[in-house]
Structure formats: C-alpha cells, structure tokens
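Journal club side-thread
Mid-discussion, someone asked how the predicted structure for our own chain would compare to the paper's figures. Pasting it here so we can look after the session.
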Amino acid sequence: MADSKEIMATGRRKCAIAVVKLVKGKGRIFVNGKKLADYIGNMPSVEMMMYRPLVLTENQEKYDVRAKVVGGGIVAQAAAIRHGISRALLKSNEEYKNVLKAEGLLTRDARVKERKKYGRKRARKRFQFSKR
C-alpha cells in the first residue's frame, strides 16, 4: 500500500470532518487549498498538534498533507486533520500502530456539544428561580 501515490484517510472531531491525503513531499500541510499558516493564523500550539503524528513516526520531511475540512471550529478541524493524518500513516505502514496508539492519536474524540433542552436556557443552565 505504501507504493501508491497518495494515501487517503478520514478524521473526525466534534462536528469537523477532514479528508486527508498524504503525498510524497517536503512536510508541508495544505488545508482547503491554503497553506497551514494562512488557514489557522497565529496559533503555534494548534500547528504543533497537527504535526504530532508526523513527528512521532519521523515522517515530517517525507509527506505533504492535503486536507479538505468542513464543519466545527479551527481547533476541532485541526484535531480532525490530526486524526486523519494518523489513520493515513497507519495505512502506509502498520508498524506505526503502537506509537500512534500510545499517544492516543488513533482514537476519535467523541465529545460533542450537548443539545439544548426545552424549558432551559442551554443544555443544563436553568432560568433564575423566583420564590415570589
């Protein structure tokens, strides 16, 4: 499978869904056709989070990442891309499984916002109680 030109995988987090393609390259990440720095702005911690699977598997200079992301906010999209990169790396080489699994990068973070309930202001917040 590693001989193919591009490796595709899907990553998810909250409402964000990322379709990730790993292509032979120099370690650049493109999100929705833009360079990573242009897409997320000045957020170095988010940028480091996205590069984490590539750094752990020592592939940061081997692959370019092309991601198409929809839904969620910037941080949720970054986590979805990270999940997709991890899954794509696993497709390219099964030996990365132990490293990625130990860091928790193969697990989908399923926490989503709780829905609003009727008679409440938000999911759990209540209106102020008035005795009189």
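Post-session note: The longest strand covers residues 16-24.
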